[in-house]
Design goal:
Helices cover about 20% and strands about 35% of the residues. The strands form eight sheets. The protein has a 21-stranded mixed β-sheet that branches. Strands 10-14-18-17 form a four-stranded antiparallel β-sheet, with no helix packed on it. It has a three-stranded antiparallel β-sheet with strand order 1-3-2, with helices on one face. It is of the alpha/beta class.
Amino acid sequence: MVDFVRLQEIVKDRLEQDRNIRLVTTEGDTLEDAVSKAAILLDIPLRRLDYEVTERGQPGFMGRGKKLWSIQAYERIFAKKEELDISRFTDDDSLDYSSKDNKDGDCFVHLSSEGVFLKVVPPVGRGSKVKDIEAFRLIQSRGIKDYEKENISAAVKDATGEYVKVADYEHRIVNDSTVSVEIAEAESKALMVVTPPGPGGGDISFETFISFLRNNRVIYGINEEYLREFADRPIYKEKILIAEGLKPKDGKNAYMRYNFETDQKKIKLREGSDGRIDFKDINIIKNVVEKQPLAVKMPPERGVNGRTVTGKFIPAKDGKDIPLPLGKNVHVGEDGVTIVADINGQVVLAGGKVNVEPVYTVAGDVNLKTGNIIFLGTVVIRGNVEDGFSVKAAGNIEVNGTVSKADLDAEGDIIVHQGIAGKGSALVKAGRSLWARFIENSNIEVGNMVVVSDGIINSNVDANKRIICQGKRASIVGGKLRACEEINAKSLGSPTSGTETICEVGIDPKSKSQLEVLNGKKEEMESELGEIQRDLQTLINIKKQRKSLPEDKEAKLGELMDRRQMLMSDLVKNNEEAEKIQSYLTSLTANGKISASGKVYPGVRIIIRDQMNDVRTEYKAVTFVLENGLIRVAPYEEPDEEAGKVPDGYSTS
């Protein structure tokens, strides 16, 4: 319901509207005559006219007593939808008077040489129908007085939406409406001006407009939908844009669509699982793999020709083609437009060409400026790798400086020219071998050899083949070193002792580590099984005594039994895997050897396969070997030539 304040506003608005109403007083022999004159004076359609009869007319008799009809007329004010929203005053939601699908009916008059024609358009939805009086007024406004009301009423009732002849009239061809057309702006537009018909003059039909335009060379871009409406509701003495040409559209030039970020300055930061941004991961390297599509040439487009309103074609330019920007280590795909990588590496756009670089070079240190490095090729670092950063490469890693408390992981070799100072937590993994000046407080895992010139101190080093420590100060002090074939250094251990040095050969370090993990899991599962068995036995004893268990205890019993079954199954799998690894380690034929060209100090633990010997006396220039199931001390043996090999592409320096 509308409130009192809103009612006040509505009343105020309507009073304001009333003040703006223009009133005219007209007279006529009939009411229709008076209404028609009022519409002409107010210059409005009959449908928008409202009036009040001030004096009723009388036909009189024999010319006596005749009175004219007198009315006061004014333009009907249509209230705003908000003010007339009936839903405010009713609770009937089924009445939808504000629907956009509702439209009142309408009617139009057209005069031609053939007669008077009336078109009545039916309403849409809940719109109002056209009334007879509206049609009468409209016809009278055109000066037509001689007509049959029945014809008009029939046309209103049928409401076919088409023009229907309802009367004849005296057509004055000289007073017909006229039209002229102007072709402007290099024939891109056509402007039309229509003059109103005079008394007895005819209107111009849609078909006549079309014929006139074509006869005056306007054949393209005619707005026929607007012209149909214009024929019903003509606008006189104004220039009307009735046709518009089509502008030519030049085709786009061919261009490259890159599948990688071409702007080297853009940095994409990654958000971790905790929602924080890791500023070490700035993703500045665009890694690609062999056969990966890198870019596609989008072909040039054909231009779309334009047309003038007179039908002339305006030629458009076709787009220009471009050559494929092929650089190094790329080729053209089978489709002839795709650039494909030949190798794994970094894709770069240099000199306008697409290249795949197999080597990524860091000019300085690996730090916050570079972020962590992940590259599908070889990484060369001119400086150091600072604390907390990581470098991962599908090829080799070469560091000209020092590796601090950082992580290095390469599928190939790793070369550290200065050394690795891991501060207890550095992790270096190489698929092949590692060369370094020194290794200190670090964890090392390699698939082939570890070669160090100065020494290995307090580090855990695993090599699938050899650990070679050669040089004037090439000593191994502290830590745990494991290799399959050989450990060779100038000295092992320290004369001051206090630091445990373990050297183990004759095993596969990786498999040995897996076996140790499996044995640890076995102990944990067996311990948990023992606890579960004790708890189960307690619950079973209680159930035997009381014949039943409380609901929560019964549920606990079921959970324990399920957990026991799962652990027993996992334990079987764990033992099977451990047995396989143990069988593999036992099958290894290489016993391995541990050598020192200088001294071996007391406190060093020597392990060859499954035999262990704690050194209690100092040895010089010796090699420990396994003979007849016992560790024997033999004269020192030099490492073979393979230990002196250098990584591919590097000199002995």
